[in-house]
């Protein structure tokens, strides 16, 4: 009576008597592959930790580990008697099916690889994409996670980052703080400039280089617009911006410098004086 061949028997080439030995050798190869992959990634991290960012190290470490472990896993399956061609064929069909079903995910995956390779930002940086601004919590293969200043979690697909303008607000050590100020037309611009520069000179967190500047911006309908620019370290940007604007308001009040509100003057042209009629005790007087 013929014994019916099962799917597992078709998948495994080894005779029943040799399968135990093959599985033992395959298990040893898996353990050895795991240890060698771990040692290789550890050596890579120790060598490259000062040349790459923390996130780039993480990506490279995972890539090297899984690549080496996959090689040993294929060898282990071969020793166990599995038909690698059958497994690879099934994996290929599965990959094609998944690819058609998730084209957006594939686009995000490729975009994520470009973002990681380009290194435009890293974990801990503050970035702005469109109207969204926040601190980068993680850079994954499909998306980037942000935490906004009001502690809201935001997930941005990598494809959107590749297609949009991205601003890294903390890439460099110092940042510029531009403050636009409108003063009345009758004010002395030289006096205003001196007051502002004195404020910058007294502020402990404002940098001497680059030097603070006061420049004319425009003749607005109700004011002369000036731009007061100071520089500070990126860690103190918000504190300096807030304290400097408060100090400007206080100094202008003390010096009597007017910050005008919008005004409109209406002139209809030449007008004749209107006659005024006064009446007293029945007598009529015209002025």
TrEMBL record:
It comes from the Bacteria. Residues 105-171 form the Mechanosensitive ion channel MscS domain. GO terms for molecular function: mechanosensitive monoatomic ion channel activity. This is Small-conductance mechanosensitive channel. Belongs to the MscS (TC 1.A.23) family. PANTHER family: SMALL-CONDUCTANCE MECHANOSENSITIVE CHANNEL. The keyword NAD does not apply. It is found in: Cell inner membrane; Cell membrane. GO terms for cellular component: plasma membrane. It comes from Fluviicoccus keumensis. Residues 179-259 form the Mechanosensitive ion channel MscS C-terminal domain. SUPFAM superfamilies: Mechanosensitive channel protein MscS (YggB), C-terminal domain (SSF82689), Mechanosensitive channel protein MscS (YggB), transmembrane region (SSF82861), Sm-like ribonucleoproteins (SSF50182). Its main location: membrane. The chain crosses the membrane at residues 23-45, 57-76, 82-101. The keyword Transmembrane helix applies. Keywords: Cell inner membrane, Cell membrane, Ion channel, Ion transport, Membrane, Transmembrane, Transmembrane helix, Transport. Homoheptamer. It is a multi-pass membrane protein. Mechanosensitive channel that participates in the regulation of osmotic pressure changes within the cell, opening in response to stretch forces in the membrane lipid bilayer, without the need for other proteins. Contributes to normal resistance to hypoosmotic shock. Forms an ion channel of 1.0 nanosiemens conductance with a slight preference for anions.
């Amino acid at each position: 009576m013929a014994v019916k061949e099962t799917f597992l028997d078709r998948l495994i080439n080894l005779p029943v008597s040799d399968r135990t030995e093959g599985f033992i050798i395959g298990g040893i190869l898996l353990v050895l592959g795991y240890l060698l992959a771990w040692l290789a990634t550890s050596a890579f991290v120790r060598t490259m930790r000062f040349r790459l960012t923390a996130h780039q190290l993480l990506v490279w470490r995972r890539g090297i580990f899984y690549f080496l472990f996959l090689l040993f896993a294929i060898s282990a399956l071969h020793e166990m008697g599995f038909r690698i061609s059958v497994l690879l064929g099934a994996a290929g069909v599965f990959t094609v099916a998944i690819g058609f079903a998730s084209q957006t995910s594939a686009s995000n995956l490729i975009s994520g690889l470009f973002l990681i390779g380009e290194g435009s930002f890293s974990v801990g940086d503050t970035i702005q994409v469109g109207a969204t601004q926040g601190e980068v919590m993680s850079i994954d293969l499909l998306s980037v996670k942000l935490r906004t200043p009001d502690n809201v979690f935001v997930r941005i697909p990598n494809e959107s980052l590749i297609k949009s303008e991205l601003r890294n607000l903390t890439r460099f050590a110092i940042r510029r703080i531009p403050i636009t100020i409108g003063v009345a037309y009758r004010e002395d611009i030289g006096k205003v400039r001196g007051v502002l520069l004195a404020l910058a000179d007294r502020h402990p967190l404002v940098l001497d280089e680059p030097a603070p500047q006061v420049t004319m911006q425009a003749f607005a309908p109700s004011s002369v617009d000036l731009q007061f620019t100071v520089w500070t370290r990126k860690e103190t940007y918000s504190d300096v911006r807030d304290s400097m604007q408060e100090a400007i308001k206080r100094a202008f009040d003390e010096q009597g410098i007017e910050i005008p509100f919008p005004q409109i003057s209406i002139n209809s042209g030449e007008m004749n004086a209107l006659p005024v009629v006064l009446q007293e005790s029945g007598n009529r007087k015209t002025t």
